Amino acid sequence: MLRIAKLTDYATVLMVRLAREPARCFSAVQLSDELGLPLPTVSKLLKRLLQAGLLTSMRGAGGGYSLAHAPRAVSVADVVSAIEGPVALTECSLGKGSCSLEKNCATRANWQLISRAVRVALEAVSLADMALPRMQSIRMPGLQEKTQ
Q: CA-to-CA distance for 90 and 111, rounded, in angstroms?
C-alpha cells in the first residue's frame, strides 16, 4: 500500500488548523490540546515546518506559530516535502544515480512520469482547499468525487 507517513498526515492537520485562522498565533500546547496530538510530536513537526519556511514563530507571551504564507500559497506538496523530502515514488524518480538498477531499468521513465503526476496533484491542492469542509473547490481532470 502506498501511503503518506503518519507524521506527514499530522503535519497536514496542523497546517490546516493554522490555515483556518492565518492571522492567529498558536502555541504548541494549544495545538496539541485542540487536535489531540501528543505535545512532543507537535513540537517536532512545528520545528520541521519552521525550518522549511512554512511557519513563522514569535517568542514571548502571546507568541507561538503562524503560517509564513497565505493558505492559498502553500500546497500539500510543500507540507509533504517539509516532512518527507522530495515527492518521489521510487528511488529512480529522484534523479540520476540514485538507483543501482538504473542502467538496465525499463520502468524508470514511467515511474518518473507517475511520480510527477502525484507531485502535480499534491501541488494543485492548497491549505485553503484542505481547510474547506469537503473537496468542493478542488477540480482536477480525471478525479471525480463519488457520491453515495
A: 7
Closest by CA position to 46, among listed 6, 74, 18, 86: 18
Tell me 140's DSSP state: B
Residues 23/71, Cβ–Cβ less than 8 Å: no
Residue 31 lies in a domain: yes
Per the domain annotation, does 1 fall within a domain? no
* Domain containing residue 67: CATH number: 1.10.10.10
Q: Which residues of the chain fall below pLDDT 70? A: 1, 95-98, 134-148
Q: List the grid coordinates of 8.
A: 506527514
pTM of the model: 0.83
Q: How many domains does the chain have?
A: 1
